[in-house]
Specification:
Elements lengths: L17 H9 L11 H7 L6 E5 L5 H8 L3 E6 L2 H13 L5 E4 L12 E7 L5 H13 L1 E12 L15 H6 L6 E14 L5 E13 L3
Parallel strand pairs: 1-2, 1-4, 2-3, 4-5
Antiparallel strand pairs: 5-7, 6-7
Length: 213
C-alpha cells in the first residue's frame, strides 16, 4: 500500500479489503516505483538502526531500504500478493525481512516493540485512522520514532486527500507528556502525472519521538 502513489481510482470502501489489493497487485508485474518513499528517506536516513515496523509495506521498497541500512524490519500488509512480491524482491537484494499479512483495521502490533514505526500513505477509512494511529503510537518504544505520512490536496490526489488525517491533527492526539513532536507539517515535491506531465504534490508528515521515562 505504500510507495509513490501516483495513480489512483476511487473504489469506495472496497479499497480497504484484501480482495481489492490482491486484485490490484495481481493486475501488473509492479504497481509502484520500486524506490523508497521520499519522506521516509528524508526523516529516517540519519537515525541509528534498530527494530522497525513498516505498515502497509506494499511491494517492499521501504522495508528493503530500511533493512539495507541495518534495521531489523517487520513489514505488514493486507495483500498476500504484495507480500509475496516483496519477499522475492528482498531475497534478490540479499536482505532479510519478516513479512506478515495483517489487516490494519484491527491489528494491534503490541506495546513498545519498535524503535521506528512507519506508515506511508495508508489507505483506511478516515474514521478508523485515529484508532490505527493510536495503536501504532503505542507500539513505539521510549526513545523511538513514529512516522506517519499522508497525502494532502494535489492534482493527483484531490479525490483521496480527504481520507488522510492531517499531520497537525495526529500531533494534537499525542500526549505531550509522552511525545516530542519534531515534524508536523506538509512538504511539496515533484512527481509525474498519468500522462507524463510534471505535477507538484504535497505530503503531510508527522514525526514524533516517544519520551524516555
Amino acid at each position: 500500500m505504500t510507495m509513490q502513489h501516483e495513480h489512483h481510482a476511487d473504489h469506495g470502501d472496497t479499497e480497504y479489503t484484501q480482495e481489492f489489493w490482491d486484485e490490484r497487485y495481481g493486475s501488473a508485474d509492479r504497481i509502484w516505483s520500486g524506490r523508497p518513499n521520499v519522506q521516509l528517506v528524508a526523516q529516517v536516513a540519519e537515525l541509528p538502526p534498530g527494530e522497525a515496523l513498516d505498515v502497509g509495506s506494499g511491494e517492499g521498497a521501504d522495508a528493503i531500504w530500511l533493512a539495507s541500512r541495518g534495521w531489523k524490519v517487520t513489514a505488514v500488509d493486507v495483500s498476500a500478493v504484495a507480500l509475496d512480491r516483496a519477499a522475492r524482491a528482498a531475497e534478490a537484494q540479499g536482505v532479510t525481512i519478516s513479512w506478515e499479512q495483517r489487516d490494519m483495521l484491527s491489528w494491534d502490533p503490541g506495546a513498545a516493540r519498535f524503535d521506528l514505526v512507519s506508515a506511508q500513505f495508508m489507505h483506511l477509512p478516515l474514521a478508523a485512522q485515529e484508532s490505527m494511529h493510536a495503536r501504532l503510537a503505542a507500539a513505539v518504544r521510549p526513545g523511538g520514532t513514529l512516522l506517519i505520512v499522508g497525502h494532502l490536496h494535489s492534482e493527483l490526489h484531490a479525490h483521496i486527500a480527504p481520507r488522510f488525517r492531517r499531520a497537525e491533527d495526529i500531533a494534537a492526539s499525542l500526549d505531550p507528556a509522552d511525545w516530542q513532536v519534531l515534524v508536523a507539517t506538509s512538504f511539496e515535491r515533484q512527481a509525474t502525472g498519468q500522462d507524463g506531465e510534471h505535477v507538484t504534490i504535497t505530503d503531510s508528515v508527522l514525526r514524533a519521538v516517544r519520551r524516555r521515562s
